[in-house]
């Protein structure tokens, strides 16, 4: 069976956007994350509220109204700019992204989880409580989380930037993920790839915003049963 729901994932190559003037005496200040990439060691999991690493962010204007969003819903950045787990977490995945934004700047940083196993496709179902939702209410077969790609992402490649989740009951196993579109199987080919078994989406190279500002691909999965399209 081929589930033809067209989940279109748009990869925006992120770039620091500076709005307004710098403070007097801060002519050398570059607004945004002062460190773009962080590494955290995985030792079987992470404890609630235990700092993993501290991020360094400066909007060159006092950081007023600054807010952070983490790509993994079980993590957050606290008031002291420490990345912490909201609860005890075993299934962290191998990479996450931190989005920092206020009226002055919009920027992202990457956190690599060294030694962590790939994130389980079942985790998001558990977080959202989807096992309690009746089949007739689950209209979408796939869920694509927000995926961030930094413009100056450094080697080594490929890097995992997100994982597609199977949402329809009865399709959690025995399926194959596919990706098509510009940047996947169309020119420029191979920029983004997908693990046909796990649904992990990876970027294979450093991206240039000036050359291509965004990529749009479609994803779907197939299963050896009757053909059905959503």
TrEMBL record:
Chief localisation class: membrane
MF-aspect GO terms: calcium ion binding
CDD domains, alphabetized: Cadherin_repeat (cd11304)
Entry's Gene Ontology BP terms: homophilic cell adhesion via plasma membrane adhesion molecules
Residue ranges occupied by any Cadherin domain in the UniProt entry: 177-217
Signal peptide (UniProt feature, chain positions): 1-21
GO cellular component, one term: plasma membrane
SMART domains: Cadherin_pro (SM01055)
Subcellular localization, as worded in the UniProt entry: Cell membrane
Keywords, alphabetical: Calcium, Cell adhesion, Cell membrane, Glycoprotein, Membrane, Repeat, Signal
InterPro entries from the UniProt entry: Cadherin-like_dom, Cadherin-like_sf, Cadherin_pro_dom
Matches recorded under PROSITE patterns: CADHERIN_2
The keyword Endoplasmic reticulum appears for this protein: no
Record field: transmembrane: none
Name of protein: Cadherin domain-containing protein
């Amino acid at each position: 069976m081929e589930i033809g729901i067209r989940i279109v994932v748009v990869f925006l190559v992120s770039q620091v956007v500076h709005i307004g003037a710098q403070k007097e005496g801060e002519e050398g200040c570059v607004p945004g994350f002062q460190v773009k990439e962080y590494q955290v060691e995985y030792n079987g999991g992470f404890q609630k509220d235990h700092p993993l690493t501290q991020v360094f962010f400066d909007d060159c204007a006092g950081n007023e109204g600054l807010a952070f969003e983490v790509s993994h819903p079980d993590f957050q950045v606290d008031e002291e700019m420490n990345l912490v787990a909201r609860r005890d977490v075993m299934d962290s995945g191998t990479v996450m992204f931190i989005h920092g934004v206020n009226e002055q700047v919009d920027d992202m940083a990457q956190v690599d989880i060294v030694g962590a196993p790939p994130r389980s496709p079942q985790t998001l179902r558990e977080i959202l409580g989807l096992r309690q939702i009746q089949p007739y209410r689950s209209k979408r077969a796939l869920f694509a989380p927000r995926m961030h790609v930094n413009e100056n992402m450094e080697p080594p490649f490929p890097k995992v930037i997100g994982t597609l989740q199977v949402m329809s009951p009865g399709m959690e196993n025995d399926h194959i993920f596919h990706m098509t579109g510009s940047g996947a199987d169309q020119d420029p080919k191979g920029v983004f790839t997908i693990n046909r078994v796990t649904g992990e989406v990876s970027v294979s190279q450093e991206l240039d915003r000036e050359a291509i500002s965004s990529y749009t691909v479609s994803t779907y999965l197939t299963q050896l049963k009757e053909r059905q399209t959503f």
